[in-house]
Amino acid sequence: MLIFILSPLNISFKKNNIFYLSNIGSAENHLSFHISVFLGLHKYILNHAQSILPSLIFLDQPSQVYFQNGKDDTDLLEVINIYRQLLFEIKRIKEESGIEPQIIITDHIIDFGDEVQNEFARYFRTDWREGRKFINIAN
Questions:
Q1: Which domain does 102 fall in, by range?
Q2: Does residue 106 sit within a domain?
Q3: Percent of the chain, pLDDT > 70?
């Protein structure tokens, strides 16, 4: 049984095991917790015919917990795993519900390495550096 407690934010996987967000450890664990909850809720709700939940998740810089100093040279495999797991879950949710959720990610990581860059190339839309803006407000 999965139980969500919204205030304070907690999750319980069994009747007597409550995992408090404040006690789950590192920023990496917090990221995993949030992504798991978002994907789990989407999977659960999208499997109901009367669902009105938009099939959209927006993630802002999930790699930030691995590159807090702004460098793209450590923990790269962990970031690659995040992206691969997100793609895996999108596929699984579509297979089970018939609905393919859209996940929009804004991130600052540039280089995954050639092999992985090619793996993810079809999912990247643009690079928002060098004066290009995600939301361009005219003066």
A1: 26-123
A2: yes
A3: 77
